[in-house]
Amino acid sequence: MEATEVNSASVDAQLRVDKKEEGIYRLSFRFSGELIIPCDRCLDDMTLSVDTTYDLTVKEGDEYDDSDEKVLVIPGHRRELDLTPLMRDTVLLTIPLMHVHPEGACNAQMLNKLQQMRAVNLTDEQLYAVEPDVETTNPSSGSIDPRWEALKKLTDNN
Predict the structure, then answer these.
(1) Which tens digit of pLDDT belongs to each residue from 53-99?
(2) pLDDT at residue 22, as a whole number
(3) Strand pairing partners for 32?
(4) What's the mean pLDDT when you consider all of the chain?
């Protein structure tokens, strides 16, 4: 797989083709296996299990149309259909946005280095805590910050 984050893969693909009526075919894919991808946290390889299915209806028509994700229209004169891109994309979509080793399985050396390189050593709770950057009121006077007052006027006009 070119230009992806997959280092290696061993995925079996099964395809069942059912002819529904003249010019209409139902394709049922089943994928199972493993992908080797880098961990987002420590960059070491990790194994991701693949177990997914995909169903597609292929119809003969006047011109090629793949605008519907469940129906593919191909010109009636074509007698071949390359399913490789569709199969590759289906497998790639099983990769989660964030992929990390299970807790405690990351490369300890890399985690220590990351901890040392932090500008400030914070816990994850401190790092992701949401704190307001502007106070809405002035504690000493009890008055509303002028920036919030201007926003309040905008909402009062609507």
Answers:
(1) 999 999 988 888 888 888 999 887 777 888 999 999 999 999 999 99
(2) 84
(3) 12, 51
(4) 83
- C-beta atoms surrounding 120 within 10 Å: 6
Place of tokens 């490789």: 84
pLDDT (0 to 100) of residue 69: 84
Tokens of 76: 């009636």
CA 19 to CA 25: how far, in whole Å?
5
Write the DSSP string, 4-72.
Answer: SS-SEEEEEEEEEEEEEETTEEEEEEEEEEEEEEE-TTT--EEEEEEEEEEEEEEEEESS-EEEETTEE
3-state secondary structure of 152: helix
3 state SS of 115? helix
Q: Count how many Cα atoms sit within 13 Å of the Cα of residue 117 in the half-sphere of its side chain.
A: 6
Say yes or no to pLDDT of 12 above 70. Answer: yes
Torsion of the alpha carbons at 111, 115, 119 and 124, rounded to the nearest 10: 90
With a CB cutoff of 8 Å and minimum separation 6, the contacts of 57 are 20, 24, 25, 26, 27, 70, 71, 72
